[in-house]
Amino acid sequence: MNSLAKSFEPAAIEACWYPIWESRGLFQPRPWTTGAATEAATYCIQLPPPNVTGTLHMGHAFQQTLMDTLIRYHRMKGDDTNWVVGTDHAGIATQIVVERQLQAEDKTRHDLGRDAFLERVWAWKQESGSTITRQMRRLGASSNWNFADSEGQKAGYFTMDPAMSTAVVETFVRLHEQGLIYRGKRLVNWDPTLMTAVSDLEVDSDEEDGKIWEIRYPLTDPQGAIDSLVVATTRPETMLGDVAVAVHPEDPRYASLIGQKLRLPLVGRELPIIGDLHVDPAFGTGCVKVTPAHDFNDWKIGERHALPAISILTLDARIVDSAPEAYRGLDRFKARAQMLIDLAAIGCLVSEKPHKLNVPRSGRTGVIVEPMLTDQWFVATTKGQPANARFPGRSIAEVALEAVNSGQIRFHPEHWTSTYRHWLENIQDWCISRQLWWGHQIPAWYDDTGRVFVGRSEAEARTKATAAGYPIDRPLVRDPDVLDTWFSSALVPFSSLGWPQDTPELKRYLPSAVLVTGFDIIFFWVARMVMMTKHFTGEVPFRDVYVNAIVRDAEGQKMSKSKGNTIDPLDLIDGIDLETLVAKSTTGLLRADHRDKVERALRKNYPNGIPAFGADAMRFTFASLATFARTLNFDLNRCEGYRNFCNKLWNATRFVLMQCEGQDCGLEPHAAGQCAPGNPEAYLQFSLADRWIVSVLQRTEAEVEQSLADYRFDNAARAIYEFVWNEYCDWYLELAKVQVQQGAPASARATRRTLVRVLETVLRLAHPIMPFITEELWQKLAPLAHRYGERGVQTLSGPELELAVAEQRYSIMTQAYPISDAARIDEHAEAWVRELKAMIDACRALRGEMGISPLQKVPLIVADASDSGRERLEAFAASLRALARIETVTIVSELPVGTRAPVQLVGNARMMLQVEIDLAAERERLGKEINRLVGEIAKAQAKLDNAGFVARAPVAVVDQEKRRVAEFGLALERMREQLEQLY
Question: What per-residue confidence (pLDDT) applies to 33?
Answer without folding.
Answer: 43
